Amino acid sequence: MSDNPKLNILGTEYELKRAGQKDDTRLEDNDGYCDEYAKIIGVCDDYNENFSQGTRKLDVFKKKVLRHEIIHAFLFESGLTEQGQDEELVDWLAVQFPKMLKAFQEVDAI
């Protein structure tokens, strides 16, 4: 059985897999992936000397990648398969979501 955490994406359980590029071939050329058929969200967890922008920026980047892949899953599970494959849309949502959440919280909309 897997030690990887589970995410509930609109009632569907996804496994969150954090792995190194050498441990998961799907991460060799990607920072993350969403496998909507196997219900796995994979994110690269072995950035080190290859990421030269510092620890703080690395943490921010990893969170953005994880948000990006979770958004893919939400779109797929919503039946929005075409939008779920739109990298520009998904990336925009991943970048803007923290700002949107803050605005919602400021006006007690959450």
Secondary-structure map:
Elements (H helix, E strand, L loop, with lengths): L5 E4 L2 E8 L12 E4 L4 E5 L10 H23 L3 H4 L2 H20 L4
Parallel strand pairs: 2-4
Antiparallel strand pairs: 1-2, 3-4
Tally of helical runs: 3
Q: Helix and strand string, N-terminal first?
A: EEEEHHH
Percent range for helical residues? 40-55%
The low-confidence runs, each spanning 5 or more residues with pLDDT under 50, are none
Structure description:
The protein is built from 3 helices and 4 strands, in the order ββββααα. The protein is of the alpha+beta class. It has one domain: Arc Repressor Mutant, subunit A.
Summary tags:
110 residues, alpha+beta, Arc Repressor Mutant, subunit A, 3 helices, 19% strand, globular
Structure summary:
The protein has 110 residues and is α+β, with helices and mostly antiparallel strands. It has three helices and four strands. A hairpin with a 4-residue loop joins strand 3 and strand 4.
